[in-house]
Amino acid sequence: MQFILFPESASQASLRLRIAYLGYAFVIILGTIPGARAEVGEVASGFFLHFVAYACMTALLFTGYQGTAGARALRAIAIVAVMGALDEFIQSFLPYRNGTIKDWYVDMAAAIVASAILAQLYLKARRKSPAAAKAATGRGAR
């Protein structure tokens, strides 16, 4: 499990970061399409969509960066805070959307929950394999 969640290769970690940023761009682009949010809203609530999307981005960021569990968590949460704020800022300029602080709170809750879970898994994996943990805290991807 630790090799799947916490890749040792810098190329795997880098790929996760690229997927996270591309996923964010995808969320922003879809959010600017008139009527797209309304159609998706028939299937899932805004709370659910925000929580799942930003939790997934947090997981990719957490597992893509190197460092201790705390450093990974703080970095992922900080990046998601900026991403969520920018998403809501962009929505505030669209006449068919509205940016709300409540959505940003959901984004932050998703980041905190995902980071907390991943930090615990990381620490558990580190206890099982000290050699892998030492390699994972080294300077690899960004």
From TrEMBL:
<feature type="transmembrane region" description="Helical">
    <location>
        <begin position="43"/>
        <end position="62"/>
    </location>
</feature>
<keyword id="KW-1133">Transmembrane helix</keyword>
<feature type="transmembrane region" description="Helical">
    <location>
        <begin position="74"/>
        <end position="92"/>
    </location>
</feature>
<feature type="transmembrane region" description="Helical">
    <location>
        <begin position="104"/>
        <end position="123"/>
    </location>
</feature>
<feature type="transmembrane region" description="Helical">
    <location>
        <begin position="21"/>
        <end position="37"/>
    </location>
</feature>
<keyword id="KW-0812">Transmembrane</keyword>
<dbReference type="Pfam" id="PF04892">
    <property type="entry name" value="VanZ"/>
</dbReference>
<keyword id="KW-0472">Membrane</keyword>
<dbReference type="InterPro" id="IPR006976">
    <property type="entry name" value="VanZ-like"/>
</dbReference>
<feature type="domain" description="VanZ-like">
    <location>
        <begin position="48"/>
        <end position="118"/>
    </location>
</feature>
<protein>
    <submittedName>
        <fullName>VanZ family protein</fullName>
    </submittedName>
</protein>
